[in-house]
Design goal:
heterodimer; A: 110 residues; B: 670 residues; alpha+beta; 4-stranded antiparallel β-sheet; 22 helices; globular
Chain lengths: 110, 670
């Protein structure tokens, strides 16, 4: 066996060990993903939306300061954004409450 | 070492295939063990490809002509600099280089996201591994860079003399970094479609990747133009060559994406559009490699052995079919609940900008594939030249230029017309005043003159808009935070890097437009056969041919240099030295131009021919404002760095979100 063949063998052995080891750690019954909780996903999405709407309000204020929107349009758009933010915050509270109630019920059942 | 390199390529293919299969099985069977096993493959594949690349580089540096590829693209006389660059001088090496970059990107994306984005990672890694498998399949079974020559020759043929230029080391890697970079957002977009994670998570995740790929592609295009300018010796920097077009099209689509994606982030709409744009960008990058490697379309860039057309065509077909199928399947989930608030809004201006960019993209695509279509339909290959592209793309480009100025002055969601008029007044007045002043100085005889005139006026208008944006922003900050003018300007840019970095990029684009307009409309050239001491008069310049110098630089390369004195208003301002280089074994000499560059214009000298009595034919170009294009490129680079600079506030917001999510729904399901 020459040096190159030895290196090739070493490479293959290293790869086999690398990809093979996890298969023999007795993890075959461990689940990769927990079932997706749609409420958690919605919560995550709403957190991002909340940030975006709040940033939009800040940006609108800046646009107003730099004279891109009239006072009338500023108040109109700001009102719309505030309503959107309020709806998001309500829904976030609702999801948090549902989660708390669910946890409390589960604790009682135990 | 060659054997080891070849073996590493084969092992990389086997590992990548295993990675694809085990990722899919891990997700389908919801098994951690398979996932952990598959998760090792991106780094292993990268390591194997790196070994193969190191082996090929070693073969170049040690003049190992037992490899057909090294023999074809190198020789003993070439310097180390060019031996390193010869790696991507031909089809085989360029594919290996592409694969090296692809696996490097894949590994970085893997290391960055493996713990943060478990939901998307298996699918994203599978997509990238499938693409890697395609390239590794070609490298192993169709275009192997380790192919041997049974009886190795003493010396190689050497790199094409046209490629023996320092740009060879810079331009292809930059362009490839751009092309390959779009694989990452593409893979995460497909992963989002497969896993139904269709909020803007994948967009935030890949925002910097997209920007980086865009930056490299943009720079790659500009570097290519700069190389063509100094090497090809025809006085220009862009010829609408099919391969230039192939690099230009993904840039246009990606630019459209970078703008429209902001609407999705702000308003949670246009999901189908953005998804389609990023998928199309990737398709365009593959189309680009198809053009270069199919041999179907004639181009100065086509590889000698362009034989991979059908493979790339097949791959392109599969990618398009999968993308279209996935988008159609997920259409109900991609539908947006929000609508545009007003026609007069930043969102609408972005939509127009998208339409214009795609318009230029489509015209360029049509012109590029027209020879194939005409041959298929009428049996005659009709090539579409620069007049077609200029006829269609220049007016659209000018409309786009105007929009660069208009867009930033319009507010998001709803702008007020009266305020808009007020905001446009000063930039418009500046542009009109400039236009009136310019009217007296420039000719307006032909179409090119008029278009250039309009372009200059628009450039002033756009610059006015950008300056007014910075000024108003800084003034507002000075009011609110009691900062000094400079402090406010700095803080404004620092706290809104994406917005104001974008404006800096726009300044670069304006300079490029101005440079193109000036050089296309007001350039001139002349050619004359001159004896020693004779002169040629062009514009304000007197170009005097002084003498011819011949020298043997190496045993394979000799140079013939013309010494030329350039005078302006009777004063000698420069000694130019255009030359012809002769390479042993090459039929055609290579012209090396000499350029005196200034912000106003370039004096561009070509030694077209010479005779035994030491007379020379000189071709002289006066190219106005070409340096503006290169300056614009550097400004774009600076603006992109500003945009990409890490944003601590955003990172803080991300961490806060995660904490909140964990507090409400522990453990967090990212």
């Amino acid at each position: 066996m020459n040096f190159i063949h030895f290196m090739e063998l070493l490479l293959v052995a290293a790869i086999l060990v690398g990809v093979g080891l996890p298969l023999f750690r007795g993890l075959s019954k461990t689940r990769l993903f927990k079932p997706v909780n749609p409420r958690s996903e919605e919560y995550k999405h709403l957190l991002v939306r909340k940030e975006e709407v709040l940033l939009s309000i800040k940006e609108l204020e800046f646009d107003f300061k730099t004279d891109k929107v009239s006072e009338e349009d500023y108040h109109g758009v700001r009102h719309k954004l505030e309503l959107e933010a309020a709806a998001i915050l309500d829904r976030l509270d609702q999801l948090e409450q549902e989660k708390k109630n669910g946890s409390a019920r589960a604790a009682k059942a135990i | 070492m060659n054997d080891f390199g070849e073996f590493a390529l084969l092992v990389a293919l086997a590992t990548a295939l295993y990675g694809c299969v085990s990722y899919v099985m891990a997700v389908r069977g919801n098994r951690v063990d398979l996932y952990l096993s598959a998760d090792k493959t991106p780094l292993i594949v990268w390591a194997c490809v790196a070994i193969a690349s190191a082996a090929l580089w070693r073969a170049f540096l040690t003049d190992d002509f037992s490899l057909q590829y090294v023999w074809a693209y190198s020789n003993r006389e070439m310097g180390t600099f060019y031996k390193i660059a010869s790696f991507w001088g031909g089809q085989k090496g360029s594919l290996l280089f592409w694969t090296l970059l692809l696996t490097t990107y894949m590994s970085v994306a893997y290391l960055q996201n493996r713990k943060k984005n478990v939901a998307l990672m298996p699918a994203a890694m599978t997509v990238m591994l499938v693409i890697v498998v395609f390239f590794l399949f070609l490298l192993n079974f169709s275009t192997n860079p380790f192919e041997r020559i049974p009886l190795p020759p003493e010396d190689g043929r050497g790199l094409n003399p046209l490629l023996q230029n320092y740009w060879m080391v810079i331009h292809p890697p930059t362009l490839y970094l751009g092309y390959v970079g779009f694989t990452v957002p593409f893979a995460f977009a497909i992963a989002a479609l497969i896993t139904k994670n269709l909020d803007d998570g994948w967009i935030r995740l890949t925002r910097k990747w997209t920007l980086m790929a865009w930056f490299f592609l943009c720079m790659g295009n500009l570097f290519g133009a700069a190389w063509a300018y100094v090497e090809l010796g025809w006085g220009g920097y862009w010829a609408w060559d099919p391969v230039e077009n192939a690099a230009f099209m993904p840039l246009l689509v990606a630019t459209a994406y970078l703008h429209s994606v902001m609407i999705q982030e702000k308003k949670d709409m246009m999901k189908v559009w953005n998804m389609s744009l990023i998928l199309l960008t990737f398709v365009m990058t593959i189309f680009g490699t198809f053009i270069t490697r199919s041999g179907l379309i004639q181009s100065v860039h086509t590889f000698d052995e362009a034989t991979l057309g059908y493979y790339f065509l097949g791959f392109l077909g599969v990618v398009i079919a999968i993308c279209t199928g996935l988008i159609l399947k997920r259409l109900p989930l991609l539908k947006s609940k929000n609508e545009l608030d007003s026609f007069l809004s930043r969102e609408s201006s972005f939509l127009f900008n998208n339409l214009l960019l795609l318009g230029i993209g489509f015209a360029t695509f049509w012109g590029t594939i027209f020879p194939i279509i005409s041959e298929a339909v009428r049996g005659v290959k009709i090539t579409v030249g620069p007049p077609f592209y200029n006829q269609v793309n220049v007016p659209i480009g000018l409309a786009l230029l105007a929009l660069i100025g208009i867009g930033p002055l319009i507010a998001w969601r709803r702008a007020t017309l009266s305020n808009l008029k007020k905001n446009f007044l000063k930039p418009l007045a500046a542009a009109l005043l400039f236009g009136a002043a310019l009217f007296a100085f420039v000719p307006l005889g032909g179409r090119a003159d008029i278009l250039a005139y309009v372009a200059f006026v628009l450039c002033v208008f756009v610059m006015g808009c950008i300056v007014s944006e910075f000024y108003k922003g800084a003034a507002a900050r000075m009011d609110l935070h009691e900062e000094s003018g400079l402090g406010a300007l700095g803080a404004l840019t620092w706290r809104n890097k994406r917005r104001y970095g974008g404006y800096v990029v726009h300044v670069g684009v304006v300079l490029i437009f101005a440079g193109i307009a000036g050089s296309q409309a007001y350039g001139t050239h002349d050619q004359k056969h001159l004896k020693k001491g004779e002169s040629l008069q062009i514009r304000d310049y007197t170009v005097t041919y002084e003498r011819l110098l011949a020298m043997e630089e190496t045993s394979v390369k000799s140079r013939v240099i013309a010494q030329v004195g350039v005078y302006k208003n009777g004063r000698r301002i420069w000694t130019g030295q255009p030359e012809k280089e002769f390479y042993k074994g090459q039929n055609q000499p290579v012209s090396e131009v000499d350029v005196l560059s200034s912000w106003r214009e370039d004096v561009y000298l070509i030694l077209a021919d010479f005779t035994e009595d030491e007379a020379a034919t000189l071709k002289v170009y006066i190219n106005p404002m070409v340096s503006w294009i290169w300056t614009g490129g550097w400004i774009i680079a600076f603006g992109t760095v500003v945009c990409m600079w890490p944003d601590r506030l955003e990172e803080r917001r991300r961490v806060m979100r995660q904490k909140k999510q964990e507090a409400a729904f522990s453990p967090a399901q990212e």
